[in-house]
């Protein structure tokens, strides 16, 4: 069995006002307060294109390796749904603003982007329950009507659900880096519809199924895994697979049938009569190109070459613009790049992940991280103590040096203090000493552990290990 996957992604643009009117965009506004005759489709109201929307669409197309078309146009997509008060959606069907782009996955596989087009969002349906199969009633908030989107349509180049998840994550990172979309799937700023079919071992292909209502990166993977398994079982049993639209129910972790799949002809596309042809100059495209920042993959490659950090750490750090700036600030502060990268990826980010929170550079300042790294590298405190102090800094914002002093965490590493304790431990374990004499050098760890207990964790384990060997060998 072989699966064929293509994605249709809607990215909400970070403009202050809507695509074709002056209504403000505010996700926290009371329902149905940011609306006007234009975005609710009142008779005689005419749309006017927001220039910032065009700029953001061009910027996105360039970042995604697309060809930007100097001439594009708008069309009406006609369908009835309660959250679409006009009865149609303004989009770009016949002549989109950008085509033929791609994103490279970490495996080297190129996932092609067929097109990027500008369109307006519909309203928001608010269901009475979380479970879409049990919802009894719905409310409608029209505030989202007219919010600008770009729709990014891929070619069916993906074969595994994990590839689709990686594509979505890379797309999110790019859109965030160029500052055109927040990328928050949970808030609806980035929405994914997945199209999937399965080809059996005899070369017979199933009908294509569209899966909607996917609101997180892991659910992109889970929904596709479920649907591929469902279609594969039907093919093995010789059953037909309906060409339909299904919804992902994240409560039951299943897909449910919503409706038969519409064909493009069902939407009766025709040119938007109230908007002129969109023409953008080469100068504008070049101006937008100059505003493009270093993209995540480019940044990761630079980090590996310039700073010598691992590929893994470089990819994690470069995904988030704030995190990348934080990392570079630690280097400017005098932290070794490899040390900084390891602490950020392995320790600092784990605190945010535990809270399911976005990275915030204000939680643990660069100066605070530098103090912890310096204290650890100079063996003033243990790595374990440093992690505990970092957790406290994360929660309280206090100076790590004050916490270390308050908790009396400075390690004991001088011979004068440690040797009497080491000799006491050794003298109390003659049988283990005999094992060492017979060549079992691994018992050094036993003595180190007991010395750490005697000092209540304040001893420097490295210094203790070296001194234990000297005492056992009669050199001290």
Explained architecture:
With 476 residues, the chain is of the alpha+beta class. The protein has 3 domains: 2-285, no CATH class; 294-406, no CATH class; 415-472, Arc Repressor Mutant, subunit A (Orthogonal Bundle), CATH 1.10.10. The chain has 15 helices and 16 strands. It has helices spanning 51-63, 161-177, 217-236, 282-290, 296-307, 311-318, 321-332, 337-354, 366-377, 383-396, 400-406, 415-427, 430-437, 444-454, 461-472, and strands at 2-12, 67-68, 71-72, 75-78, 88-91, 98-104, 110-120, 124-127, 138-141, 148-154, 190-199, 209-214, 244-249, 254-260, 270-271, 278-279. The strands form 4 sheets. The protein has a 9-stranded mixed sheet with strand order 2-6-7-10-1-11-12-13-14. It has a 3-stranded antiparallel sheet with strand order 5-4-15, with no helix packed on it. Strand 12 (209-214), helix 3 (217-236) and strand 13 form a beta-alpha-beta unit. Helix 2 packs antiparallel against helix 3. The protein is elongated.
